[in-house]
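User: Design a sequence. Structure:
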């Protein structure tokens, strides 16, 4: 078995163990309010981190301002209560348009 598949199986096993640990340790108890607030704040923070590292590239070497403009348009459209899919479509159009023109 190659090292890659062994690594994939190990990561899968650790993921399953972590997901099973919560219900096994907590049982029927509810989380404290502070813990629920931390968990609720983790998803947007992780998403923002992934977006920044994807936009900037390793060591900020692949920074593309046109992509940032598209992300800004998507965020603005979503802020004005446009549904997610049209917001993303608008961001794609703006980003592609800027890349085409500039």
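Assistant: Done.
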């Amino acid at each position: 078995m190659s090292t890659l598949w062994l690594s994939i199986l190990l990561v899968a096993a650790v993921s399953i163990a972590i997901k099973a640990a919560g219900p096994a340790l907590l049982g029927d108890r509810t989380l404290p309010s502070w813990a629920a607030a931390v968990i609720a704040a983790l998803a947007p923070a992780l998403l923002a981190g992934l977006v920044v590292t994807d936009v900037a590239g390793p060591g900020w070497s692949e920074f593309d301002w046109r992509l940032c403009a598209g992300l800004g348009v998507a965020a603005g459209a979503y802020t004005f209560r446009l549904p997610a899919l049209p917001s993303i479509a608008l961001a794609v159009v703006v980003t592609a348009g800027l890349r085409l023109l500039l």
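The CA atoms of residues 42 and 48 lie 10 Å apart. The longest helix spans residues 3-26.
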